[in-house]
Amino acid sequence: MWMKACTLIGNLVVLEPLSLDHVPALSEAVMDGEGWRLWFANVPSPDKMADYVQTAMKAAKQGDIAFAVRVKQTGQIIGTTRLYNVDSTNRRLMLGYTWYAASARRTGINTECKLLLLTYVFETQHAIAVEFRTHFFNQASRTAIERLGAKQDGILRQHQIMPDGSYRDTVVYSIIASEWPAVKRHLYTQVTSRCRIQREFNVL
Question: Residues with Cβ < 8 Å from 119, sequence gap 6 or more?
């Protein structure tokens, strides 16, 4: 397989391969913010967390990699993220299925997660492109993706049928290999600044 299961360690977080051992902690984390209640989000409810993790682990056997996100300072599990739709022939993949406990948002955790994952796929695995997809109405997700430095490729209209029967328009973004050095500098600056603030004020 092109992508290899691995543990990625940063200053703020540790990304570790997702397993059933993470289910209790993830079930607790998702209660913080109750993200599954957002009709446009793909976030599991606590009672569906085990199925969510099992599905991710099954996909990992086909070359995808799902991670649990652990806060390095506290050891707390606060969410998940995933490398999926891995195309080893064309060295392309998607980065998504990302959600965090509400308390972890706007802390620098997402930025460092993306820095770790993108460094791995571009510099270790020599990816040509990484794609991001989100619901047209998920403005928070769109803003976060654009803040990374990804560029919008287009919108897939009526791309999926949501659980409530509505149609999802999917916004597609990507970062290509030639853009990675500039994106990396941008993300590194953000993470460094966040780590400095945390050291000064001793906050997450």
Answer: 184
- Asked whether the beta carbons of 145 and 136 are under 8 A apart, the reply is no
Could you tell me whether strands 65-71 and 13-17 are parallel, antiparallel, or unpaired per DSSP bridges? antiparallel
DSSP 3-state of 40: coil
What is the distance between the alpha carbons of residues 111 and 55, in angstroms, rounded to a whole number?
A: 26
Q: How far is CA 76 from CA 4, 26, 79, 107, 142, in A?
A: 24, 10, 9, 14, 26
Q: Which residues contact 43 (CB under 8 A, 6 or more apart)?
A: 30, 35, 36, 99
Question: Is 79:104 a contact under the CB 8 Å cutoff?
Answer: yes
Q: What is the pLDDT of residue 174?
A: 98
Question: Tell me, what's the pLDDT at 198?
Answer: 52
Q: b/e for 62-101, b at 16 or more Cβ within 10 A?
A: ebbbbbbbbbeeeebbbbbbbbbbbeeeebbbbbbbbbbb
Residue 110 confidence (pLDDT): 92
For tokens 């599954």, the residue is 36
DSSP string, 166-187: PEEEEEEEEEEGGGHHHHHHHH
Question: Do 26 and 53 touch, CB atoms closer than 8 A?
Answer: yes
Q: What is the pTM of this model?
A: 0.90
